[in-house]
């Protein structure tokens, strides 16, 4: 995985396709593949560190995940299934979260999903296909652990993949909690740069260098998000929580993270810890945000952790440096 590619694809590439996203996202689902990683990597403390390890060790699993002999404990009866983001994989995005949850007593599982035909990275294929892949993985987890239900934790695109499975593919029957971290619930306008980018000379050719179906489907107004959020963005029987950042570098406006359906709980990092200016790319490695994730999965058991100041833009320079080292 190339860290620069992920950032450029999220910030520049998505902006460039924004003006055509509604028609582009309506194409027939493209083929993609999924992979269950089983070789554990080390615990990582930054996204750049995890991205570098994933680049050098393809197929690595987050530490303490994908133990299919794990027996759910009475106080954590539902396994947690993790879904990563765009142009990424389970190790890169979950190398801090998975071991934290396992240490707390959960059985934790993670899938590499949606590697589009001809793509270098996972999380690039049609979200509908990725959601079906996630659903098949959930059934394996349930069969191997004996659990009746699971909880789903999705980061960025993974939140939409998981919600599509829950809302449209019957996952509500076997999912108790859905938690979306930096979830593009209503997509992004990317600071309104879409129209200008498409009009720029050569912009179309540039888009082709990093375009993916999944990326287009996460833009505000896309056909897939309209389908998923109509007539309501939640379904009965599932407890939904979003965790967002007001300084998200990808999802603009940041209010598009929030769900609007009955019963949805919407949390913002800066409402809970004002000096924590962590954004999209740092959320799954920010210490305070990790405690919010744990709290969202079991609010009756886990309180929020210590509020620690985090500077704006934390994590992004390191990702860029890592990808060019």
General description of the model:
With 325 residues, the chain is an alpha/beta fold. The chain is 38% helix and 14% strand. The chain has 14 helices and nine strands. The strands form two sheets. A seven-stranded mixed beta sheet has the order 1-5-4-6-7-8-9, with helices on both faces. Helix 7 links the parallel strand 6 (150-155) and strand 7. Helix 1 crosses helix 9 (203-210) and helix 6 (127-145) crosses helix 7 (157-168). The longest helix is centred in the middle third of the chain and has 19 residues, at 127-145. It starts with a helix and ends with a helix. Residues 1-29 and 194-209 have low confidence and may be disordered.
Task: Give a short summary of the structure.
By secondary structure, the chain is α/β, with parallel strands linked by helices. The protein has helices at 3-17, 21-24, 47-56, 90-94, 97-104, 127-145, 157-168, 194-199, 203-210, 213-217, 223-229, 269-272, 287-297, 316-323; strands at residues 32-35, 39-40, 60-61, 80-83, 108-116, 150-155, 175-181, 239-244, 265-268.
Q: How large is the share of residues in beta strands? A: 5-15%
Sequence of secondary-structure elements: HHEEHEEHHEHEHEHHHHEEHHH
Could you tell me the radius of gyration in angstroms? 18 Å
Average per-residue pLDDT, rounded, comes to 87
> What percent of the residues sit in helical stretches (DSSP H or I)?
25-40%
Looking at how many chains there are and whether they match, the oligomeric state comes to single chain
- The first-to-last residue Cα distance is 13 Å
The major β-sheet equals: 7 strands, mixed
Q: How many distinct helices?
A: 14
Number of strands: 9
Low-confidence stretches are: 1-29, 194-209
Strand order of the largest sheet: 1-5-4-6-7-8-9
Main structural class? alpha/beta
Shape: globular
């Amino acid at each position: 995985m190339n860290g620069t590619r992920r950032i450029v694809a999220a910030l520049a590439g998505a902006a460039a396709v924004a003006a055509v996203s509604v028609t582009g996202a309506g194409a027939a689902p493209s083929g993609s593949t999924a992979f269950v990683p089983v070789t554990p990597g080390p615990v990582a403390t930054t996204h750049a560190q995890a991205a570098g390890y994933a680049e050098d060790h393809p197929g690595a699993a987050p530490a303490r995940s994908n133990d299919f002999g794990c027996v759910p404990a009475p106080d954590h009866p539902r396994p947690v299934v993790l879904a990563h983001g765009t142009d990424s994989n389970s190790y890169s995005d979950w190398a801090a979260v998975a071991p934290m949850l396992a240490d707390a007593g959960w059985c934790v599982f993670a899938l590499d999903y949606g590697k589009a035909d001809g793509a270098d990275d996972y999380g690039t294929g049609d979200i509908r296909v990725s959601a079906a892949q996630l659903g098949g993985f959930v059934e394996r987890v349930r069969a191997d652990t004996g659990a009746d239900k699971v909880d789903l934790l999705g980061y960025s695109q993974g939140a939409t993949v998981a919600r599509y499975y829950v809302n449209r593919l019957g996952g509500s029957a076997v999912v108790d909690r859905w938690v979306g971290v930096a979830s593009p619930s209503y997509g992004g306008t990317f600071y309104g740069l879409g129209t200008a980018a498409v009009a720029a000379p050569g912009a179309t050719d540039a888009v082709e260098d990093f375009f993916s179906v999944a990326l287009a489907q996460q833009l505000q107004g896309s056909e897939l998000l309209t389908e998923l959020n109509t007539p309501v963005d939640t379904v009965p029987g599932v407890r939904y929580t979003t965790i967002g950042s007001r300084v998200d570098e990808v999802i603009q406006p940041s209010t598009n993270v929030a769900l609007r359906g009955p019963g949805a709980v919407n949390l913002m990092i800066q409402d809970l810890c004002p000096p924590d200016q962590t954004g999209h790319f740092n959320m799954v490695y920010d210490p305070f945000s990790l405690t919010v994730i744990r709290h969202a999965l079991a609010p009756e058991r886990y309180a929020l952790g210590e509020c620690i100041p985090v500077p704006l833009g934390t994590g992004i320079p390191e990702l860029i440096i890592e990808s060019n080292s």
